[in-house]
Amino acid sequence: MCNSHHGEQGESEERCCPGRGRVRGFMQPWLLLLLAQKPAHGYELMERLGQDDETPGADPGLLYRTLRQFEEDGLVRSSWDTKGSGPARRVYEITDEGMEYLHAWVVNIRRTRERLDRFLAEYQAYFQSPEEGR
Amino acid sequence: MCNSHHGEQGESEERCCPGRGRVRGFMQPWLLLLLAQKPAHGYELMERLGQDDETPGADPGLLYRTLRQFEEDGLVRSSWDTKGSGPARRVYEITDEGMEYLHAWVVNIRRTRERLDRFLAEYQAYFQSPEEGR
DNA sequence: ATCTGTTATATGACTAACACATATATTATA
DNA sequence: TATAATATATGTGTTAGTCATATAACAGAT
C-alpha cells in the first residue's frame, strides 16, 4: 500500500492516503474568511482558494454547494451581478452570523492544531528519542 | 447558528460546528502509533486514545471497523488472547507495511498543520492587524 | 441463583464531506 | 464557426464519522 518511504525528509509523498489527513470542511472557513475580506462570486473564490492553499483544484461542485448551504443557513447573502462581460455572477457577501461562524471555526481550528501537535510530539518521542529506539 | 461568541478567548465553544474542523481519518495514525509502541487489543486502544486526546469518546464502532480494515490491508495482524479474565481479546500488532503507512501519515499530518497555520496567519493578518481594521 | 456492571467485540443505519463526472449558458478569440 | 474561458450547477458514489444496538464472558452483590 502506498509508495515506500522511510526518508523522513518530506519529499514527494503525493497521492498517499488520498483524502485522509485533511481537515473536514476546511473549505468552509476559507470561504468565510475570503468573503470577510471582500464580497466575491464563486468562480473568483475558487481561484483565490487555489492560490494560497495548494488544495488540489478546489472542487467547484463542493464550492457552489457550500455557498448555497451557507446562504440557506444565513451565513452569507447573494445577489446577481450582470455588469461586466461573461455570464452573470452570483456575488456573495458575508453576514454578521457568518462572521460569528468564522470566529467559531477559528477556535476549532486552533484546537485541531493542538491535536496534531500532540500526535506529532508522541510520534517523535517514540521514533526520534535516544531510547525506545528502533 | 451556533452559540454566540466574540470573546476570542477560547472558552467553551463546545458542540459548535459538530464534526467539522477535525482531521479526516485521524484515528488511523493514532491506532498505528499506539500499536507501534506495543501490541494491544481494541478496548485497550480505545482507552489509550481517550486519555491523550480528548476526542469525544473514541467511538467503538469506528475503532473496531478501522482495525478490521487495517488487517485486510495488511497494516496489522491479529490473534486471540484467551488468557486473563473477561471475554477473549483480539490482540493486534503492527506490520512493516503498517509502519510505512504510519510514516506516510506523519508526512500528511505535517502538511495539514502547515495548511492550518496558513489559514490562521491569514485570519490574524486580517482581524488582528492594526490596519484592515473592522 | 439472578441481577447488574464491566470488559470486549461487533453490526446496522444514517449523515456529511468529498471526489469525479457532466450539463448549461455566456462571451471572447482564433 | 469552432474553441476556449468564464460561470454556475447537478448527479452519483465513496468514506469517515455518529449513534444506536446486539452479543457474550465474567465478576461481584443481593
Strand order of the largest sheet of chain A: 1-3-2
Fourth-level CATH superfamily of chain A? Winged helix-like DNA-binding domain superfamily/Winged helix DNA-binding domain
For the record, the CATH class of chain A is: Mainly Alpha
Mean pLDDT across the residues of chain A is 84
Helix content of chain A: 40-55%
How big a fraction of the residues of chain A is strand? Answer: 5-15%
Given helix and strand content, the structural type of chain A is: mainly alpha
Q: Output the helix-strand order of chain A.
A: HEHHEEH
Assembly type of the chains comes to homodimer
Low confidence ranges of chain A = 1-15
In total, the number of domains of chain A comes to 1
Major sheet details of chain A: 3 strands, antiparallel
Tally of contiguous helical segments of chain A? 4
Question: Which features does this protein show?
Answer:
homodimer; 134 residues; mainly alpha; Arc Repressor Mutant, subunit A; three-stranded antiparallel beta sheet; elongated; disordered N terminus; DNA-binding
Characterise this structure.
The structure is a homodimer of 134-residue chains. By secondary structure, chain A is mainly alpha-helical. Chain A has helices at residues 27-37, 42-52, 60-72, 96-127; strands at residues 40-41, 76-81, 89-94. Chain A has a single domain, classed as Winged helix-like DNA-binding domain superfamily/Winged helix DNA-binding domain (Arc Repressor Mutant, subunit A, Orthogonal Bundle). Helix content of chain A is 50%, strand content 10%. Chain A has a 3-stranded antiparallel beta sheet. In chain A, α1 (27-37) crosses α4. The first copy, chain A, is elongated and about 65 Å long. The interface between A and B is large, with 55 and 55 residues.
